[in-house]
């Protein structure tokens, strides 16, 4: 019997500088300790290759996230891919994504990543307008971003994604349209749009506390949320998840693994992993864990269970909630038949009651056994998800 493949996430917790809104596990580093960090990643690849939860399972997708993984050389990326291929096996045609910063774009570098097996690049662009790039503390210009995308495509990596942030201080709808217009005119297949959130502990949080950061009001952000899918669909990008839009079939396969509750292994400082547990072919719960967040702590413990900072066992109720919470993010929605297959018929009724209430309130649509958010449901998505905590 062929075992289910899993998605592999590799975290690179280094950036050239720390953006003032960012609360990811990443550290401004003048010089990345590449060989030490890659050694640690390789130790963990070997450690999990003999873990019974992963033995015999292939890798369905790879995602290098951060941080700024493009600070690692193509040689370093290739070394990890080779070891992952040797010990697990990577499925033929697997999506291999690298997040990249568009500062200092270089065709030679992208050629190196392509030869290392990368077939998708996700650029953290955020905006093309000088004013917003300065406000967001980005270390690249709009022109750098355009050049980076074009050079990457010229180098043969044609599956390219661009991240755009909206809801930024003093931003108007016309400003947002400018960013979307420039992005959608590029030879890219995918756009992710994220509303700026002010996270505790960040410089933006402190500025806001002191009244130095004026955020757009909720009505304007709601208008932006409605504007983005309309605008992008006119440019050939279909929404397939609350924040994600793709041309043709260029959805992020790796992220779809998260949204559909598939298993993933996270390697690198502060990376998260998830494995489901089954009994009699029904999902009865799962396990989630994370590695140590500080790069030095991670590097000195990688390759052993000492690199795990916390682990938790998920109850069946948590897994059922996540089924709806993650699945409703996708425009394809969730299938109640799939829910029943995973969790059993006896539990379907009470969740169906929640679905019926949401249908009456106009926040979800239902076609047969498929349930998805309506446009008004998207605007209050968090409160819709909460209704499935039962
Ligand atoms: S480049 Fe990305 S990961 Fe690094 S600090 Fe900025 S937003 Fe965070």
Query: Kindly, what is the distance between the CA atoms of the first and last residues, rounded to a whole number of angstroms?
Result: 36 Å
Q: List all distinct small molecules, including ions and cofactors, that are bound in this structure.
A: iron/sulfur cluster
- Name the structural class: alpha/beta
Largest sheet: 9 strands, mixed
Record the strand order, biggest sheet.
9-10-8-7-6-5-4-1-11
CATH superfamily of the largest domain: Aldolase class I
Q: Which ranges are low-confidence, i.e. pLDDT below 50, for 5 or more consecutive residues? A: none
- Quickly give the CATH architecture of the largest domain: Alpha-Beta Barrel
Please give the number of β-strands. 17
Indicate the percent of residues in helices. 25-40%
Strand percentage lies at 15-25%
CATH class of the largest domain: Alpha Beta
Calculate Rg over CA atoms.
21 Å
How would the global form be characterised?
globular
Please state the average pLDDT score. Answer: 95
Count of helical stretches: 15
Count up the domains. 2
Outline:
The protein is α/β, with parallel strands linked by helices. The chain is built from 15 helices and 17 strands. Strand 4, helix 2 (about 75-85) and strand 5 (about 90-100) form a beta-alpha-beta unit.
């Amino acid at each position: 019997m062929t075992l289910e493949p899993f998605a592999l996430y590799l975290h690179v917790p280094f950036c050239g500088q720390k953006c003032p809104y960012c609360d990811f596990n990443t550290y401004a580093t003048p010089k990345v300790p590449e060989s030490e960090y890659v050694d640690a990643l390789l130790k963990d690849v070997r450690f999990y290759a003999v873990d019974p939860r992963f033995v015999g399972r292939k890798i369905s997708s790879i995602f290098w996230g951060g941080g700024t993984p493009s600070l690692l050389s193509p040689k370093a990326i290739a070394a990890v891919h080779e070891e992952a291929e040797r010990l697990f096996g990577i499925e033929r045609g697997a999506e291999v994504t690298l997040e990249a910063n568009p500062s200092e774009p270089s065709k030679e570098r992208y050629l190196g990543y392509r030869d290392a097996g990368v077939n998708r690049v996700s650029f953290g662009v955020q905006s093309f307008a000088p004013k917003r790039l300065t406000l967001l503390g980005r270390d690249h210009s709009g022109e750098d971003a355009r050049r980076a995308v074009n050079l990457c495509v010229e180098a043969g990596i044609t599956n390219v994604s661009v991240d755009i942030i909206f809801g930024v201080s003093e931003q108007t709808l016309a400003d947002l349209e400018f960013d979307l217009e420039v992005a959608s005119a590029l030879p890219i297949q995918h756009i992710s749009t994220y509303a700026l959130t002010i996270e505790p502990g960040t410089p933006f949080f402190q500025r806001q506390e002191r009244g130095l950061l004026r955020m757009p009001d909720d009505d304007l952000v709601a208008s932006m949320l409605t504007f983005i899918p309309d605008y992008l669909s006119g440019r050939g990008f279909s929404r397939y998840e609350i924040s994600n839009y793709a041309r043709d079939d260029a959805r992020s396969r790796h992220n779809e693994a998260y949204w559909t509750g598939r298993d993933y292994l996270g390697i690198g400082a502060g990376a998260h992993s998830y494995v489901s547990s089954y009994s009699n072919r029904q999902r009865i719960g799962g396990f989630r864990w994370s590695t140590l967040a500080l790069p030095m702590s991670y590097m000195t413990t990688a390759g052993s269970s000492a690199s795990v900072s916390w682990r938790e066992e998920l109850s069946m109720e948590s897994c059922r909630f996540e089924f709806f919470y993650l699945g409703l993010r996708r425009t394809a929605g969730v299938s109640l038949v799939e829910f029943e297959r995973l969790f059993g018929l006896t539990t379907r009724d009470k969740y169906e009651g929640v679905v019926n209430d949401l249908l009456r309130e106009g926040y979800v649509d239902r076609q047969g056994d498929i349930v998805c958010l309506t446009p008004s449901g998207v605007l209050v998505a968090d409160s819709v998800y909460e209704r499935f905590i039962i």
